[in-house]
Design goal:
The complex is a heterodimer.
Chain A (H helix, E strand, L loop, with lengths): L4 E10 L2 E11 L4 E5 L6 H9 L6 E6 L2 E2 L11 E3 L11 H11 L4 H14 L15 H13 L5 E5 L7 H18 L2 E6 L2 H7 L2 E6 L2 E6 L1 H6 L4 H6 L4 E4 L1 E3 L2 E4 L2 E3 L13 E5 L16 E11 L4 E6 L5 E6 L14 E5 L6 E4 L3
Parallel strand pairs in A: 3-8, 3-9, 6-7, 7-8
Antiparallel strand pairs in A: 1-2, 1-4, 4-5, 9-10, 11-15, 12-13, 13-14, 15-20, 16-17, 16-19, 17-18
Chain B lengths: L16 H40 L11 H4 L4 H34 L2 H12 L6 H12 L4 H8 L13 H25 L4 H9 L3 H29 L3 H6 L7 H10 L4 H25 L10
The structure holds adenosine-5'-diphosphate and magnesium ion.
The site of magnesium ion has 2 residues of chain A, from helix 1.
Chain lengths: 355, 301
């Protein structure tokens, strides 16, 4: 199966600013890989290096073993969905989608059939003769996707393709993208700053920060085993509590903390406990001292599908915790009352500020 | 128990309706009075003179009502002038497009700062009067002018070239005056073409020249049309440059108008010529607008 991408030591500087700092990444054929990171982290730059729109200072990209970096953009044969779609305003939907085929010398009935097929895949066949300015955001998105897949590229690039859509449509399109990828099996490199979108769509996620890939892994690896505070913070609704390390192990407010992995931070690095509110247990063994948090409830806010409960830690730090209406058989705490929370060992993760 | 949602003082749905309506109409009156000075000015300097022109065109030299001013235009001399006016305007517009498109394209591809600096050279001619510029061309192009002297001194030619007092001189002079009118709207519309479209074309597999012809050029057409319409229409009424550089060999509609007044003192005839020019110009602008509506991208195949 074609579509194996090997990115090696790509470096790109703008003046003294390193937009890509020695990025290396292997993408398996058929994989859906997401570059996830905050704005300005270099995701678009990396995608544009792949597409040939940005010339890096050094590095190598091979696709199916062949060097790719020196090819001009129009010879790269990659499908790309641009952030604002970049549909040609002087062409109808049909002509937009047919454009890559016509450039490849496809014409007549063959052209019509393949355009029809691509539009059918994105459920836009009925609007084929519209002008693109007469389409809604979601429809443009679909046409842009059809134009990117119509010539059956072995690799598909997408730069925040859903960011201009409203939340509901975005979530719907995520599922459609996933279904389309399952069906076509095209190697896909997807860029987003939305962690939930990345978790939903990806086979693997590369978390990007400051021009570097800080962690690469499957969605559950990224979520459950964040490598550092940045990744833990960027993914999920995360809270952090300061942890002391002594001779007897980790301590949280003086109580022992049994962690999944031993703390291996360098000297001088401060460990933080990663709190994922949904992993906290609101019921547990009151005689157990390890992995128990004692706090005071300061606020309870009803939010329909959940409660937002604010608790104050012994050191005065406040945590907002979201809980579903079912508290595991426990009554809702009351404001001002003490509260006890338990953490399972496998979900007790320490991270350092940097790694 | 029934719930009363109305405010206790509110008796019916028409509450405040009259006051709100009065407020609305007062606002409209204020807005109208703000536009009044402008409207009066337009009426005084534009509508009134044109109406006067139109009125005059139906009277003969001794004040008798007549259609003769219009029927006269069917004479060969007028028809020839009419055609030659369009030829000159068309030729000048064509040369402006050929020279101006590459310049506008270059400027649109440069950084905004560099383009701004170079733009000074495009608009520089605006800072001098047309008359001065036209005489300058005369100095350059006449038999003993700079160009001919240089060419003879350099041994390229032995007798002076007829560069002025003919169609060539007229077109050179008019293109010089008209070029900024083409470049400015074209440049603005090219600037507005996001470079992402060229990337998208390349990504689809278009070579740079294919991307230019199939994506950039069509997308720049509305701006080109605006510039072409502007230049063409301005050329139709052009007087000074063809009169000075044409040497009597280039007949323009505007020169016929001037003749009718300065030579024959026939205001009615001159007015009729003016009315025809105005109407023709209006028709051309309308056709251009219909052909190249910016939103006509919709549904184009
Ligand atoms: N042409 C450029 N010149 C200078 N700096 C640039 C240029 N393109 C991108 N950058 C910088 O590189 C960094 C990464 O940009 P980008 O890849 O667009 O980030 P992302 O897509 O992750 O938001 C940003 O800080 C941006 O300011
Ligand atoms: Mg980006």
């Amino acid at each position: 199966m074609p579509g194996r991408v090997e990115i090696r030591n790509i470096r790109k500087a703008y003046g003294s600013f390193l937009a890509l700092d020695d990025v290396s990444l292997d993408i398996a054929p058929g994989e859906f890989l997401t570059l996830l990171g905050p704005s300005g982290s270099g995701k678009t730059t990396l995608l544009n290096v792949l597409a040939g729109f940005v010339r890096p200072d050094s590095g190598s990209i091979t696709i199916d073993g062949a060097e790719f970096l020196l090819l001009p953009p129009h010879k790269r044969n990659l499908g790309m969905v641009f952030q604002n779609y970049a549909l040609f305003p002087h062409m109808s939907v049909r002509r937009n989608v047919g454009y890559p085929l016509r450039l490849r010398g496809v014409s007549g009935a063959e052209l019509d059939r393949r355009v029809e097929e691509a539009l059918g895949l994105v459920q836009m066949a009925h609007l084929a003769d519209r002008g693109v300015n007469a389409l809604s955001g979601g429809q443009r998105q679909r046409v842009a996707l059809a134009r990117a897949i119509v010539f059956e590229p072995s690799i598909l690039l997408m730069d925040e393709p859903l960011s201009a859509l409203d939340k509901k449509l975005r979530e719907h399109m995520q599922l459609e993208l996933k279904r389309l990828h399952d069906r076509l099996g095209t190697t896909t490199v997807y860029v987003t700053h939305d962690q939930r979108e990345a978790l939903t769509l990806s086979d693997r996620i590369a978390v990007v920060n400051g021009g570097k890939i800080v962690q690469l892994g499957t969605p559950d690896e990224i979520y459950d085993r964040p490598k550092n505070k940045f990744v833990a913070d960027f993914i999920g609704e995360t809270r952090f509590l300061p942890v002391e390390t002594g001779a007897s192990g980790a301590l949280l407010y003086g109580r022992p903390l049994r962690t999944r992995d031993d703390w291996k931070g360098a000297t001088g690095e401060k460990p933080w406990l990663v709190i994922r509110p949904e992993r906290l247990r609101w019921k547990g063994d009151e005689s157990q001292t390890a992995n128990r948090i004692e706090a005071e409830t300061t606020d309870i806010i009803y939010q329909g599908d959940s409660y937002l409960i604010t608790v104050r830690m012994p050191d005065g730090a406040e945590l907002d915790l979201r809980r579903g209406p079912d508290l595991g058989g426990k009554d809702l705490p009351e404001r001002g009352q003490p509260i006890q929370l338990w953490l399972d060992r496998e979900h007790t993760i320490l991270v350092a500020d940097k790694s | 128990m029934t719930m009363v949602l109305n405010h206790p003082g509110i008796a019916d749905a028409d509450h405040n309706a009259d006051a709100l309506k009065r407020q609305g109409s007062r606002e409209r009156r204020v807005l109208a009075s703000l536009t009044l000075p402008g409207a009066i000015l337009i009426f005084l300097v534009l509508i009134l003179p044109i109406g006067w022109l139109f009125w005059l065109s139906f009277f003969g030299p001794s004040g008798e009502p007549t259609l003769e001013n219009y029927t006269r235009m069917l004479k060969p001399i007028y028809v020839r002038t009419f055609i030659s006016t369009f030829e000159v305007a068309g030729l000048v517009t064509l040369v402006c497009v050929l020279l101006g498109y590459p310049v506008a394209y270059l400027l649109s591809q440069l950084s905004e700062r560099t383009a701004g600096l170079l733009m000074i050279f495009v608009v520089l001619p605006f800072w001098t009067s047309v008359l001065v510029r036209t005489y300058a061309w005369l100095v350059l192009l006449q038999r003993t002018g700079l160009v001919n002297t240089w060419l003879i001194d350099a041994g390229v030619i032995s007798t002076p070239l007829p560069l002025v007092h003919n169609m060539l001189g007229t077109v050179i002079g008019m293109v010089h005056v008209m070029l900024p009118f083409l470049i400015l709207p074209l440049y603005a519309s090219m600037r507005a073409i996001d470079s992402v479209y060229m990337r998208a074309a390349a990504n689809c597999g278009a070579t740079p020249s294919q991307a230019f012809r199939q994506v950039f050029l069509p997308m720049s057409l509305p701006g080109l049309a605006a510039g072409v319409a502007l230049v063409f229409v301005l050329c139709l009424g052009f007087f000074v440059t063809p009169a000075l550089l044409g040497g009597g060999r280039v007949a323009m509609w505007a020169m016929q108008i001037a003749n009718n007044i300065s030579v024959y003192g026939n205001w009615g005839a001159a007015s009729a010529l003016g009315v025809v020019l105005l109407v023709v110009t209006g028709i051309i602008l309308y056709v251009f607008k219909r052909l190249f509506r910016v939103d006509s991208f919709e549904g184009v195949r």
